[in-house]
Amino acid sequence: MKNLGLILLLGFVPSVGGQRPSVTAQREAMKKLDFLVGQWSGELWMNVDPPLQSLRLPQTEDVQFKMDGLLIVMEGVRRNMRGDAVLQSFATISYDDVNSSYRLHLYAEGMYVDTELKVTPQGFAWGVPAGVGDMSDTMRLNEKGEWAETSQLNMGATAIQSVETLLRRQAAVLPDGPPTVQRFDGKWLTTVSCEAARDALGYSFRFVSEVKDGNLRGQQGIEGQPSSLRIEGKINADGSGKLYATGRTGSKEFVPGRDTPRGTEYNYTIEARFKGGTGTGTRIEGRPCSWQFEKQ
Fold this sequence. Notes:
The chain is mainly β. The chain has 2 domains: 24-169, Calycin beta-barrel core domain (Lipocalin, Beta Barrel); 181-295, Lipocalin, CATH 2.40.128. The protein has 2 helices and 18 strands. The protein has helices at residues 2-11, 23-30, and strands at 38-49, 53-66, 71-79, 85-96, 101-108, 111-120, 123-130, 133-141, 147-155, 158-169, 186-194, 203-212, 215-220, 228-235, 240-248, 265-275, 278-283, 289-295. The strands form 2 sheets. The chain has a 10-stranded antiparallel barrel. The radius of gyration is 23 Å and the shape is globular. The termini are far apart.
């Protein structure tokens, strides 16, 4: 009965300017945004105290068509170095064929935006007033097919870049096969991010690890030299794993206490979890660090 009532109600919705919306035209217009659909992950750089340092955080976006192509939903999650969600957002994109415009509805932490979305080839742009200035956001796919997005606060003639995001599309993950350790074999793009601790700066870097017969090994830098790091360990058939990291310190500003000599050896344990083509890990001892793994 509820569905019948809704159908009857929609049948009597007045047209705008004598023109009724065209579902066909809306679906056709929404096809211009199909480059967004998929699972995305990467990082954003937030200028918290320019020009002293920028805060780098993991970010994901899940973008899907809904209502048979009439609507796009975008769910974003920003995490801290421990992997905890610190900001979640939910957005919808639709097309108003009567006024020939795209609309963006964005919700984040109790705030919302309702504005026109300008669609460009392989990208989009939008903006809203923000106190004494205005905020603008521009996204495009770069030459590598990555999601490159810049948000900035504009105050008069001065533009202050506030957030820059770079995301990579994740390969479609097939259903897990038989529970064997060999299903994780291959090369994995590995990202380690450590929070600022005491008077040490935070940092993040990437390298490639390799899994063979369920045994993972990765190396950043030259083993035994300053600013190097090695991880190794076993991934179980269920995707759980315990990894061990051994490294040598580099520049003192990134080491808690700042009195540790360059090249000092350190080690810690990582509790990891793998599923399909992604994995996460958390440092157990010492300063908070998170790990991200993406199968290549």
